[in-house]
């Protein structure tokens, strides 16, 4: 078991009587890539700000690199690099100058800073644009410069808040690859917040799901899916010429089918425990119905995630309805 | 790929070095921010344009002052001798032939504008550009940011006004040919310090609004609104009040007249503009003997002559402290607001 580098104990932050983060207990090990996953407004950013000591927690303890960030934020910030979600740079300065400024704020000597900045800019692939004003950078370039900016102080932990926001798919892949590479080569602990499950899935060792300031589940992505949704199910969508009651009844009687639903016009959705496409198509042709198309809708993780949160909302609404 | 390996070996060593350097003195980081802010100011178009306007107007007013003085001087040789005794040199800052206002008026008009321009987007621009969170996630105490911004802006205005003041003096000596006495020199220095304090007030007001309002435009407009209120409307309001209050029919004794006059004067002194203009006239026109009302009894028998420098300074001491106090109050409010404010971007 490796050592804990971040530990939170019953961390709570209350804004106007509304808990933004509610008794959060979590520990992250050194050298790990941890993903904070959750919808907007779940309290991910608030937690990150508390880790950096930029927001005072209402109650609870937190330690980063063995230092309490509430009482000693400066020491924590010396060891932690943070990439904000809406990062900006001084637009009238070049990318290189921006990095030098950050370095000088970290009391790094000018020669050393120049050396590191050059090396990092090469690493993130900005060597051609390093003497260009950051005002002319594209979103993806800014994000990469942001990563270089975070790394210039050679941190032990980097915290990335929505690092893939607004970048094209190719850029996202490159960025994620870079993050993973840094994690492996320099043994930097990475804390990543996002609401894109499949991106998180690609690089994170462990994931914590955050809803309404509470940590609902944590573990690696596969465990999580099991934990949250139990048995996985698939849906087969069928398009037939004419929908008859007898066809629906026959489909319903099949082994393993848990539900049959008429969607609209000539579409039927069959929910089953596993992929039963061949059996279903056979049944339909036996029933003398014309089969136009058949498709198995397997749940992607993204979809599961959406289903999960949608389900929650409905649950809550019904709860509210019951109360009133 | 050789460099990263090297880097790994050196990492531990460097970290301890850095920490030691920081523990020794934290001021390098502060001066880094000040330097960066100062560079930003002198590179920004907004400040460059304002500087050009200020320099041009000052040169213009200097020109009119010099021509007026030269006209008077050329009339007779005796005037030159008299001039030495009557602080002629100070007139460079206060005289005008009527076509352009004198230096003092320009400063009292453009100074606030410069202060506001330096301060109005100090904090909210960083916030809107998203640089504030990045700055705050560096190992920098939060108050360094606002202190450094204040100091950098103050440095810009100090440099500018001292440079301008000395240029005016130098040109004055060259063109009129009368050197300033030591007392005159001291008076001018004090006047320049006063200018900086006055600009400092508007600068802090700008910083205060920049912390309070999220939009730079809102904070600029509200600072300008306050400025216009004090430079135009406040006088009108006081005039309006004094008309009813100082109605000669309702005043029965001299004492009453004096106290009422003083009340009005004190109301006027709530305005930083008035404090500044009172102080500058006292400093630059030594013949001003009092800032309050004087009765005939008090003036009878007084010999008209310039006030010594120490006495002039004594006369404006309350004004000066008042102005600095107002500046500090604005800064304190801005400081507290900023320290308590969430760094969140939205």
UniProtKB/TrEMBL annotation, chain A:
Top-level taxon of the source organism: Bacteria
Q: Does the keyword Transcription apply?
A: no
Give the UniProt keywords, A-Z. ATP-binding, Nucleotide-binding, Transport
Q: Domain ABC transporter, which positions?
A: 6-237
Q: Tell me yes or no: is Transport among this UniProt entry's keywords.
A: yes
**So what family is this one in?**
Belongs to the ABC transporter superfamily.
Q: What is this protein called?
A: ABC-2 type transport system ATP-binding protein
Its taxonomic path starts at: Bacteria, Bacillati, Bacillota, Bacilli, Bacillales
UniProtKB/TrEMBL annotation, chain B:
GO molecular function annotation: ABC-type transporter activity
Q: Please give the name of this protein.
A: ABC-2 type transport system permease protein
Q: Name one GO cellular component term.
A: plasma membrane
List the transmembrane segments: 45-66, 103-125, 146-179, 185-209, 216-237, 316-338
Keyword annotations for this protein, in alphabetical order, are: Membrane, Transmembrane, Transmembrane helix
